[in-house]
Amino acid sequence: MPSLTAEIINDWADNKNGPVALTCKQKLLPVEGEGGVIFPPTYADIGYNIDTLSDGTKVATIDSVGSQANRMEPIFKAARSGEPDNPLSKLVPQIDIAYGNEKTVSILEAGHRLGDAVIRSSDLKDEAQKAFKLFLDTGDASALAKLAPTSLVFGVWDSRDTQAKLPRLVQSVIRAWDVDELRRSAQYNPALDYAALEVFSEEDKQKAEGKAESPLARRGFVHVPATGAHGGVVARGPIERIVTVNLVALRKLDGGNTRNLRRYILGLALVAAAEPLDGFLRQGCLLVPDEKVPAEWIAVAREGSRASIAFSASVALDYAKAVADKFGVGPAQRVAFKKERAQADLKELEKKKEKKPKSAA
């Protein structure tokens, strides 16, 4: 099994006949141990995202691709005042949007990255639009890499403006296999008998108790049961995190010094993929790696062969630092959110609605 080196990473970035992807499979466990109850995310209308396979086995999404990306991207954010320095923050430009009463939000926390509404509502709008249009017109991604390189790593779609779209290079998802869904119930008991204290009548109390929608229940003055709520899942099969680094998409990036561009973005992608998981996904879902099953990194060749790689996070970080210096990290910026820009963006939508031809009756 070859160990990771800068030469191997360079070949992944430069060689058009090189591997098409890197994959990492990592087994996770609840902190309570095997068989512990974990809580998947809930979605409107469907609750948990649980699919039933043809053999009857149920698979639960524990953390989606989009959610994982949003957890991974802030690893490049500068440390807050009083915290230890974050070496990863020097790999990307630190761009903050100031709003309200001296508050700021980092572009690394914007859900749609460079295509987010907060960017269009700031003084960064014109620069972002110019970078997107350069990519659309010429395929040159260098301006995007200077401005928002993590938009290339985790993907971006400027769906509300230029329509420029770049795929994710790093994709991660967590699934639990062969799950059983649980339910839970609870009972709220008020601290006092408010009817006895003549806050309201005994008749009002009897009418409201057990009815969660009643004003007295909503304000916590009467007993209210809650039954049949989502109670998490138990995984009889493994809980797995699968990370994929798309090398084909990487090698399609062009612009400026293409070699340095690709190496820079790949360095960021490998650092992001190797960063230890923050396993606290939500209340009731705290996961850790299974120390008995080491994570497995594999380079997948074009013809389908698979070769294990002894991956080293420290080698990936050293490589990322070196190629970032060669490419040149874009400058840090602090730009202002402008209410007027946000309002103009909304008016632009209204104009598009007005111009849209009405369908024939």
Could you explain the architecture of this structure?
The protein has two domains: 6-178 and 236-352, no CATH class; 179-231, no CATH class. It contains twelve helices and 19 strands. Helix content is 30%, strand content 27%. The strands form five sheets. Strands 1, 5, 6, 11, 14, 15, 16, 17 and 18 form a nine-stranded antiparallel sheet that branches. A three-stranded antiparallel sheet has the order 2-13-12, with no helix packed on it. A three-stranded mixed sheet has the order 8-7-19, with no helix packed on it. By secondary structure, the chain is α+β, with helices and mostly antiparallel strands.
Low confidence ranges: none
User: How many distinct helices?
Assistant: 12
User: pLDDT average, as an integer?
Assistant: 94
C-alpha Rg, in Å?
25 Å
Question: What is the chains' assembly state?
Answer: single chain
Total domain count: 2
Shape assignment: globular
Number of strands: 19
- Biggest sheet overview: 9 strands, antiparallel
End-to-end Cα distance, whole Å, is 67 Å
Strand content: 25-35%
Helix content: 25-40%
| Content-based structural category | alpha+beta
Descriptors:
12 helices, 361 residues, alpha+beta, 19 strands
Layout of SSEs?
Layout: H1 6-14, E1 21-30, E2 37-38, E3 42-43, E4 47-48, E5 50-52, E6 58-63, H2 65-72, E7 95-99, E8 103-106, H3 117-120, H4 125-138, H5 142-147, H6 149-153, E9 156-157, E10 165-166, E11 170-177, E12 179-188, H7 202-208, H8 215-218, E13 224-235, E14 239-246, H9 247-250, H10 258-274, E15 280-282, E16 285-289, E17 296-300, E18 306-309, H11 313-327, E19 333-336, H12 339-355
Parallel strand pairs: 7-19
Antiparallel strand pairs: 1-14, 1-16, 1-17, 2-13, 3-4, 5-6, 6-11, 7-8, 9-10, 11-14, 12-13, 15-16, 17-18
